[in-house]
């Protein structure tokens, strides 16, 4: 009996069972009559089940395609709801070009999602990885124990150099996006072009170099390719369907619950909705960490950040132009300009942390505290100050935190010039297909 309960197919079946109430209610239309709390519960379980199915599909696929490519597919599917929400607002902006409200919401939702991914995702997964490794519950070769306060660190796979350098390029470019009056076709060409070039590089990798798996992925990897391939495609397709159909109602349900407790709508759209839409990605990476695969978890998070910071921004102008009926620039006000600058600055600082392929407890806590404090201060202001004054104060806060992030990033890069050069050399080697030995990292 115990062996049957531990069988990989039992775990797969349990994940599927979590999703069935949502599939049934969505297919029959019952979901439309649910209360906000019921919607959150039913769709939330579907998101949880889909996250596990998606993670198992990506891990199984590592036997047949390069791991970076498998994680890139996982990242795109996991953040697909974020694309859907932002595309909706961009479409509404094109349908009503005289109003900037929808365009502002598109930018706010996009910047909120990107900052959550780093402020909560990168920092949280690093801290969780170190906690799991040091608590004795499960060893992880990716976690390095160092002497000193808060100096334990997660060591990343140097092969992630390509993602880091491409993300650096997209981050630097993002600082200039608002200077064109909005997000336009030039931004689309540059940012989407970066992502296409990145995919073209990683798809050439070695599919045989993959981690040993256990549980569900190991079970499916042991099957023949003609069995394994349909399983992988089914896991990806079914989890993608669930994420696309369940995450938006999950996010809207949370928004409605928040509004019932007096949380402003704009704040909900910028923070609560993106947090809900990012939940599959956060669940998947937490699952990977729990399997002592902190490196794969971080690779997935960095890949998600790269596709959001390139494809997500770049496609907004395309959706807006289609809705407008002509090539146009998605406009936004100065507050959203400040939001983009802050998001780019946070990304700049986070990447400066990763140039030596490590993130320590101290660095993760810094990312977390800066993120939480900025959101907390801004929320306190909009709750206590009149709306017009609150927006002015919010802009000051956004610009102040932008300066802090940029100065911290510059300071780190100044002390890690050699690591940055190694990062660039490794990326060039990855592009050429001539791997170089792993560099020695000084803590």
| Number of H- or I-type helical stretches | 17
Please report the distance between the alpha carbons of the first and last residues. Answer: 49 Å
Number of distinct beta strands: 3
* CATH class group: Mainly Alpha
Q: Show unreliable segments.
A: 1-5, 439-443
Gyration radius, in Å: 22 Å
Instruction: Provide the residue-averaged pLDDT.
Output: 82
Strand order of the largest sheet: 1-2-3
**Domains counted in the coordinates: how many?**
1
β-strand percent reads under 5%
Q: Could you say what the CATH architecture is?
A: Up-down Bundle
Q: Helix content range of the residues, please?
A: over 70%
The CATH superfamily name is NCX, central ion-binding region
What do we call the CATH topology? A middle domain of Talin 1
Q: Structural class from helices and strands?
A: mainly alpha
**What series of H and E elements makes up the topology?**
HHHHHHEEHHHHHHHHEHHH
What would you call the shape? Answer: globular
| Biggest beta sheet summary | 3 strands, antiparallel
